[in-house]
UniProtKB/TrEMBL annotation:
Polar residues bias spans: 1-16
Serine/threonine specific protein phosphatases domain ranges (all copies): 141-146
GO molecular function annotations of the record: protein serine/threonine phosphatase activity
Family classification: Belongs to the PPP phosphatase family.
Organism (species): Blattamonas nauphoetae
Protein name: Serine/threonine-protein phosphatase
Cofactor(s) this protein cannot do without: Mn(2+)
EC annotation from Swiss-Prot or TrEMBL: 3.1.3.16
Keywords (A to Z) from UniProt: Hydrolase, Manganese, Metal-binding
InterPro entries: Calcineurin-like_PHP, Metallo-depent_PP-like, PPP_phosphatase, Ser/Thr-sp_prot-phosphatase
Source superkingdom: Eukaryota
Length: 339
């Protein structure tokens, strides 16, 4: 792992910023553009500032239900993003293309904010600050990488310890354990990071009862939380064991059974890279959305999905990777095809 000295070596700024940023408590909307530009200029918050954001975020998130239920009406909309994996400058590009999150321009981020990119701290702290400032305008769901298992292996722990310290890393995990697990939009669209379960027809009422304030795999029972963060679709009917630590590969019949059992129309999930940033599978009833273009040095595009009005009309937007500053690589690149 690259040390602090290497991280600082590419900056023009070697000491504290000439205009230090003050983190309000509570965080207010006017703080967001200041934080966004502060990070864009490659500044780091202090440990105290970072812990303040994390403490406020935990308080905001822990009162939310496991399933976030959202309603949009004509002519309103909501924008969905999949994995962003520490690619802060690509997130800023989406905000440039599509507008910054606000009450008139709500967003839902479908997990995997961190790991495998060099700016996971910046993405997570900006998104958490947005959630505190606009609690009803930005929605954050948990991915499999918002957990101890992945962050120890795929870079985020190294990144946090390089930029801050071990206590900050543990505080990030404490916040991640409070993230909601999934969302339902207009009682039509089910949004989850990974996918479905080894059992057909799991009901939403079962998800509401899961103890999410743990690491995935520690929740007991059928490990419903771990499965929904780790599973992937496959093209043919049935289900089979996954090569991943949890979950399964599930077929179109499992998607159909889940949607029918819960009177829903479509599953939107993330968790896997797609060359064009998204794919439509299972007869149009399952969408994979991935929002980290140029992932691990690949040539894939990123995408975001806008759902419009009462009928949740779908509008996909693709985007290419944006330039970003030189920064350490906190993970082994050969692990990009795993987890």
């Amino acid at each position: 792992m690259s040390g602090k000295k290497q991280w600082n070596s590419h900056r023009t700024q070697t000491g504290p910023p000439s205009d230090p940023l003050e983190v309000p408590n509570p965080i207010t909307p006017d703080f967001i553009p200041k934080l966004q530009e502060y990070f864009r200029s490659e500044n780091l918050l202090t440990i105290q500032q970072t812990n303040s954001i994390l403490a406020q975020a935990r308080k905001t998130l822990e009162v939310l239900p496991n399933i976030v239920e959202l309603t949009i009406h004509d002519p309103d909309h909501i924008t969905l993003l999949g994995d962003t994996h520490g690619q802060y400058y690509d997130v800023l590009n989406v905000f440039s293309l599509n507008g910054t999150p606000s009450p008139d321009n709500p967003y839902l981020f479908n997990g995997d904010f961190v790991d495998r990119g060099s700016f996971g701290c910046e993405i997570a702290l900006l998104l958490l600050s947005l959630k505190i400032a606009y609690p009803k305008a930005i929605h954050l769901l948990r991915g499999n990488h918002e957990a101890s298992l992945c962050t120890q292996e795929y870079g985020f722990k190294n990144e946090v310890n390089d930029k801050y310290n071990e206590t900050v890393y543990q505080n990030f995990l404490y916040v991640f354990n409070a993230l909601p697990l999934c969302a339902v939009i207009n009682k039509k669209i089910f949004v989850v990071h990974g996918g479905l379960w080894t059992r057909k027809g799991v009901h939403l009422d079962e998800i509401k009862k899961v103890n999410r304030f743990l690491e995935p795999g520690e929740e007991g029972g059928e490990l419903l939380m771990a499965q929904m963060l780790w599973s992937d679709p496959m093209d043919y009917p049935g289900q089979q064991s996954s090569l991943r630590p949890f979950g399964c590969s599930f077929g179109p019949d499992y998607t159909e059974a889940f949607l029918e059992a819960n009177d829903l129309e479509c599953v939107v999930r993330s968790h896997e890279v797609r060359d064009e940033g998204f794919s439509i599978e299972h007869g149009g009833k399952l969408i994979t959305l991935f929002s980290a273009p140029g992932y691990c040095g690949d040539t894939n595009k990123g995408a975001y999905l806008i759902l419009k009005g009462d009928q949740c009309e779908k509008e996909f937007h693709k985007f290419a990777a944006s330039p970003h500053p030189n920064a350490p690589t906190y993970f082994q690149v050969q692990t990009c095809s795993v987890m």
